[in-house]
Amino acid sequence: MVKKYKRKTNRGEWSEESMKKAVEAVVEGKMGYMLAGKTFSVPQTTLERKVKGARENSPPSSSTNIKVKVSLGPKQPVFTEEEENELCSYILDMETRLYGLTTKDLKALAYNLFYNLIN
């Protein structure tokens, strides 16, 4: 029997809200990196990277446009949830009509859907 997975690291467990507050505090000059990291419970190196990005991408007067999205890994979703549900319903509909799709057919279908969405 498979045991329940226990996560061994706390990487990426900070909240977007606390990171945004920490970045604003550093950009406005209220705190340094170390103090803001400890106060808002965010990693200092990540905070430094987010502040650097905020300073490069926005004018000094506006600190409200700060992007601090948490994402681990290089993969991003291709389809929206609605498009994915539409694809699933199509596959299930084909299954009820006794026209089973192979994995190769499913991959081609998903690729064509993605290609048509781009163009």
TrEMBL record:
<dbReference type="Pfam" id="PF05225">
    <property type="entry name" value="HTH_psq"/>
</dbReference>
<dbReference type="GO" id="GO:0003677">
    <property type="term" value="F:DNA binding"/>
</dbReference>
<dbReference type="GO" id="GO:0005634">
    <property type="term" value="C:nucleus"/>
</dbReference>
<feature type="domain" description="HTH psq-type">
    <location>
        <begin position="15"/>
        <end position="53"/>
    </location>
</feature>
<dbReference type="InterPro" id="IPR007889">
    <property type="entry name" value="HTH_Psq"/>
</dbReference>
<dbReference type="InterPro" id="IPR009057">
    <property type="entry name" value="Homeodomain-like_sf"/>
</dbReference>
<protein>
    <recommendedName>
        <fullName>HTH psq-type domain-containing protein</fullName>
    </recommendedName>
</protein>
